[in-house]
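Try this one yourself first.
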């Protein structure tokens, strides 16, 4: 049974010409012609029963002709619209649901009726192409720009299964759109999502399914070291070997290879000592340097100092000479000592005895990646990275992602519960290879693996950035859903243009003219590219947009400079 309710009297006009996938429709009624808009959808009668052809209006023409009507004496008009056919809607037959396919099994006949796809008909059609007729998989994103009476749906399954990208110039509405999606995710009974919030933008988000955590800043070091107060410590022993080397070893040092080798050996030995002391001997034969096993970093520092000043027996009896690594570890030791005393890195090194407990990772994972008594999936967790130093930000953000992915990877298939990672400001820690440094490389490796293999383990990425052209190309290529807000940069526009089918390439021309909160949505979650006005979230994020002109008219708050300098020194707001 068809989802459309049209009468012949509702027709815009009749087909006058057919050329492969392009149709010319003769529009007699001038009022109908005025209603037509480029990029609006239209429906045409197919030559096959049970089928409707869907097209995109690409051109509307009203032109005077040289002919004069003999009865009225008025000059004739040539009123047509050009339609590019984009697919076929198959009507429901028996138990089969209505299905939209991006293929053309037939073409319209001459004089076939053409109708505007709008209002309730447009809503029903968009439910079909997003596979959400029953509402179970429906992700309501907003309204259609060209028809605000029609709700815009996305397929929630495919949006997260195939990874997604949300992008747009600053102030275009990225955070607004992300908040709209997050709120709907949080309403699901067993949702499991993590927001990597770099600037605290999503702090206003609230609700039963949303919880907030913050990576410990300098002022949090003395706070109670428990996840219950929302302060998160990420102990150094969670870092992979490559991450430890990038943190402590200066690659420009001529002794860097020796330092990296000694680091690997001694970290391994220190972990082995920890397992022995904790009577976890069953793990001694299986763990590696990258295994999440705690170790006491002061013991590591002591051993490195011993190696750095080691003297060994000389060639002659009773003499000594400098050991093989004598003095070669000095710069690494100095870097390590500086890191240990840096209050900005307290979340790594000053987690206290609690962060060295063997069950710490179990408790940490249950809070951020696992389940809770109230919600089987744990809900949405917003992690605030705003006080993490920028020079190691890629390292720390990727650490959280690596823990989440590793848990998914090592969970038995029958117990696995999917998790989505929302990567805010992704260009800061997922740059293109040409712009990456050592810490970026580690972050890129982790996220590239998630992008390539995450689907198999139930891990999804939602990449959010204002510069698509600066985001790692491998990760971007794995995204099958794109929510493109206003983009004014030509390089950023070209990234989105390459994603559109040839027959719909003209859609990309609207990217620089999109209004704030408007988006062009392309991908598997919606079979047709659609221009959407994103709905308003219940709790708006802290976008950081300041009304300069209005603020400059108002009074200035006192003591702002003293407060800024004091916070700068304390590295805390």
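Now uncover the answer:
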């Amino acid at each position: 049974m068809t989802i459309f309710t049209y009468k012949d009297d509702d027709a815009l006009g009749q087909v006058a010409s057919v050329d492969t996938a392009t149709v010319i429709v003769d529009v007699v009624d001038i009022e109908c012609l005025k209603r037509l808009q480029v990029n609006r959808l239209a429906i045409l009668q197919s030559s096959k029963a049970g089928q409707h052809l869907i097209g995109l209006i690409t051109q509307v023409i009203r032109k005077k002709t040289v002919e004069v009507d003999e009865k009225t004496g008025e000059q004739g008009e040539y009123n047509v619209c050009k339609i590019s056919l984009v697919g076929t809607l198959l009507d429901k037959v028996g138990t089969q649901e209505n299905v939209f396919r991006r293929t053309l099994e037939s073409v319209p006949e001459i004089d076939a009726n053409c109708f505007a796809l709008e209002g309730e008909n447009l809503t029903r059609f968009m439910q079909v192409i997003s596979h959400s007729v029953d509402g179970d998989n429906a992700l309501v994103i907003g309204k259609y720009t060209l028809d605000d009476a029609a709700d815009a749906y996305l397929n929630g399954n495919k949006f997260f299964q195939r990874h997604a990208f949300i992008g747009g110039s600053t102030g275009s509405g990225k955070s607004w759109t992300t908040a709209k999606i997050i709120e709907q995710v949080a309403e699901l009974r067993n949702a499991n999502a993590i927001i990597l919030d770099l600037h605290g933008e999503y702090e206003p988000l609230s609700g039963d399914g949303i919880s907030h955590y913050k990576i410990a800043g300098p002022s949090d070091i003395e706070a109670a070291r428990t996840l219950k107060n929302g302060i998160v410590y990420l102990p150094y022993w969670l870092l992979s070997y490559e991450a430890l080397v990038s943190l402590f070893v200066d690659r420009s040092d001529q002794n860097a290879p020796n330092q990296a080798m000694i680091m690997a050996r001694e970290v391994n030995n220190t972990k082995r000592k920890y397992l022995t002391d904790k009577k976890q001997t069953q793990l001694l034969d299986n763990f590696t340097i990258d295994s999440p096993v705690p170790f006491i970093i002061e013991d590591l520092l002591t051993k490195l100092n011993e190696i750095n000043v080691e003297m060994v027996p000389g060639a002659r009896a009773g003499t000594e000479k400098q050991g093989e690594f004598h003095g070669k570890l000095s710069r690494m030791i100095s870097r390590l000592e500086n890191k240990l005393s840096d209050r900005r890195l307290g979340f790594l090194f000053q987690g206290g005895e609690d962060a060295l407990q063997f069950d710490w990772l179990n408790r940490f994972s249950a809070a951020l990646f696992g389940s809770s008594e109230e919600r089987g999936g744990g809900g949405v967790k917003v992690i605030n990275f705003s006080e993490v130093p920028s020079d190691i930000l890629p390292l720390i953000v990727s650490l959280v992602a690596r823990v989440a992915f590793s848990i998914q990877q090592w969970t038995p298939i029958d117990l696995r519960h999917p998790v989505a990672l929302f990567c805010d400001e992704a260009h800061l820690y997922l740059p293109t290879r040409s712009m990456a440094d050592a810490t970026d490389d580690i972050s890129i490796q982790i996220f590239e693996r998630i992008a390539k293999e995450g689907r198999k383990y139930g891990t999804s990425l939602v990449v959010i950035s204002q510069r698509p052209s600066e985001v790692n190309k491998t990760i971007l290529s794995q995204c099958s859903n794109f929510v493109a807000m206003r983009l004014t940069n030509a390089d950023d526009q070209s990234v989105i243009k390459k994603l559109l089918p040839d027959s719909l390439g003209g859609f990309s021309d609207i990217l620089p003219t999109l209004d704030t909160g408007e988006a062009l949505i392309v991908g598997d979650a919606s079979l047709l590219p659609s221009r959407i006005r994103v709905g308003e979230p219940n709790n708006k994020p802290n976008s950081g947009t300041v009304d300069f002109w209005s603020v400059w008219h108002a009074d200035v708050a006192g003591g702002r400079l003293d407060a800024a300098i004091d916070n700068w020194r304390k590295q805390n707001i």
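Discussion: The chain has three domains: 8-117, 153-222+376-543, 242-332. The chain has 16 helices and 21 strands.
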